[in-house]
Amino acid sequence: MIPIVYNHTHFIVVNKPVDIGMHASSNLDKTELGIADLLCQLYNFNKLYLVHRLDTHTSGTMVLAKSKPAAHALSKLFEARKVTKYYIALLAKKPKKKQGKVQGKMEKARNGSYKLMQKSKESKESTNASDAISFFFTQPYPQQQTSINEVRLNNCSTTVQPNRMAIVKPITGKTHQIRVAMKSLGSPILGDKRYKGEEADRLYLHSAYLSFNFESEEYIFKTLPQSGNFFDQTRLSELPEFNNFAWPKYAIPSITPLINNIS
Questions:
Q1: Looking at the annotation, which residues are catalytic?
Q2: How many domains does the chain have?
Q3: Burial 48-74 (b: 16+ CB within 10 A, else e)
Q4: Which of 174, 181, 216, 219 could anchor a disulfide with 102, C-beta 3.0 to 4.6 Å?
Q5: pTM for the whole thing?
Q6: Could you tell me the CATH number of the domain that includes residue 135?
């Protein structure tokens, strides 16, 4: 089931579960629907349009448009960095630094992975238009009171537990951006096999917050993960407001005025 968080005239917001892709895929003669088609089937929508993307193994807050004009307007908001996004990620290893910025050019690596090209000392203060930019804070994530000492995964087991949680504010929206950023800090996300994260029952990355202005009205959406042995719902629900963290200032580029009224 894919919970609908908000149903607007021109778009819906859902809490995407893990392991649902953006597009249809076939595996062992079985076809899995992409999220837009799956939602149409579940809730009898005529048509839904993607306006941004989440990795198949990432869960969380996601917007889909109900019409092409709405999809165009919402897509422009994401492209112009007019949407504020916050993610939560659980880490099994301490990162090289507790907070800061990860910035660099993303390049394709092997087998669909990406790597972050570190900036030289001479260019660290400059910003290239193609750079991936993420700000982050980390904090301790103590073991749960009812300790999960062993999680069985496809005939194997792990005793690894997260010890830190990252709150990430991506400025850009590159493929695998947050996953690559955490790996570059020496602390890949728990469950992220692609980037050498410790094995777990899922990828512990969740899109927890989206906010944007649409047709002169401000919208804010928050979700908690629905699955994951190490995601503590009580602890996550008690997190401070993400906007209250001391995020660095970042100049958002101006954009062409959007359609004021969508019909």
A1: 55
A2: 1
A3: bbbbbebbbbbbbbbbbbbbeebbebb
A4: 181
A5: 0.89
A6: 3.30.2350.10
